[in-house]
Write a structure and sequence with these properties.
Elements lengths: L31 H8 L6 E4 L6 H9 L5 E5 L15 E4 L6 H7 L5 E7 L4 H5 L25 H7 L2 H12 L4 H14 L5 H8 L8 H17 L1 H15 E11 L2 H13 L18 E3 L9 H6 L7 E7 L3
Parallel strand pairs: 1-2, 1-4, 2-3, 4-5
Antiparallel strand pairs: 5-7, 6-7
Helix pairs in contact: 6-7, 6-9, 10-11
Length: 324
């Protein structure tokens, strides 16, 4: 598998933007205006922000909604509760968005006019050492978005077989030396089970040259995070559910931050399946339930990247459910 340049978030660029008083903000959304514009918001429509986080997207959606509009915000992270919005049009759901259909039904909502998903890890998560998302700090090997989940990065590293670990690093980090890394981890944990980040990094250092150490370490941490949170399976579930819950003409707006996610979203929008297998009707028209609104992926310009370095990896795709 060929590794494409810039497909992995480079954590060396992750300097958190500062808010009032010089303190790091919870999260600065990338491509905020483009994302909200992509929803094509109707004043009295029903929308879902499946990655509520710091509430940045949700605040902008509410600004464009009328008094009869409605917005549901999903987030499985208990820290997101601190950012709840005091607005009668807003409903917060503390759950993973793979349960989207269930919670819409619970709130007596059959269809929605737009779904927004910002799949990036928030600044808050990278900056909190004990959440374990960053290799900059000697925090716990955690990496859970949902702290109620029993699977942490430490549990994964200490219990997965050598083959399972190799698959995780190859599939989700696209590391060509995944088998050697896995073998070293399995041998090292016999004497000292992994629980902290820095000792884990020391075990990995012999595999990475100094000039690429940060990028390669980012791949390792990305792979672990994806597996801990089952991110690819959850994304697939969201995309499939979107076809069931969107109104005809409703929008699906997705921000991705690495090529594995972006490839899934691109294929699904284009073909209606994750493999990108194109089927055509008798007249040669592509049979997909979605219509791409932006034929070319939307990325941040240099001005935004200067303000928010984490926007460098963001890719925005917008689709509309076709009217049958």
């Amino acid at each position: 598998m060929k590794i494409k340049k810039k497909q992995i978030q480079d954590e060396s660029n992750f300097n958190s933007p500062l808010g009032d008083g010089g303190l790091p903000v919870y999260h600065t959304p990338a491509l905020l205006n483009e994302t909200i514009d992509g929803l094509n918001i109707k004043a009295n429509g029903v929308y879902v922000d499946v990655t509520f986080g710091g509430g940045g997207h949700s605040r902008e959606v509410l600004k464009r909604l009328g008094e009869n509009g409605k917005l549901l915000g999903f987030d499985q992270d208990e820290d997101a509760v601190k950012n709840l919005l005091n607005d009668p049009r807003f409903i917060f759901v503390r759950s993973n968005f793979r349960f989207l259909t269930n919670f819409l039904r619970y709130h007596n909502i059959e269809k929605v006019d737009g779904i927004l998903a910002d799949l990036g890890v928030s600044s808050h998560h990278f900056d909190e050492a004990e959440r374990g998302f960053s290799f900059r700090f000697d925090g716990a090997l955690d990496m859970r978005m949902n702290t109620r989940s029993p699977l942490t990065a430490a549990v994964l590293l200490n219990t997965y077989s050598e083959e399972q670990l190799a698959d995780v690093f190859y599939l989700y980090g696209e590391l060509h030396n995944s088998r050697k890394i896995a073998k070293t981890i399995v041998n090292a944990r016999i004497n000292a089970p992994f629980d902290r980040i820095f000792p884990f990094i020391e075990v990995l250092k012999p595999f990475f040259g100094r000039e690429k150490e940060k990028k390669d370490m980012a791949r390792v941490f990305q792979a672990l995070r994806i597996e801990v949170n089952k991110e690819m399976a959850v994304l697939k579930s969201l995309l499939e559910q979107s076809l069931k819950v969107l109104n005809p003409g409703g929008r699906l707006v997705v921000l991705t931050y690495h090529s594995l996610e972006d490839r899934l979203v691109k294929n699904f929008i284009r073909s209606g399946n994750f493999e990108g297998k194109i089927e055509k009707d008798f007249y040669g028209n592509i049979l997909s339930p979605l219509k791409a609104i932006n034929s070319k992926v939307i990325i941040a310009d240099e001005a935004e990247i200067d303000r928010n370095p984490r926007a460098r990896s963001a890719k925005l795709r917008i689709a509309e459910l076709k009217v049958s």
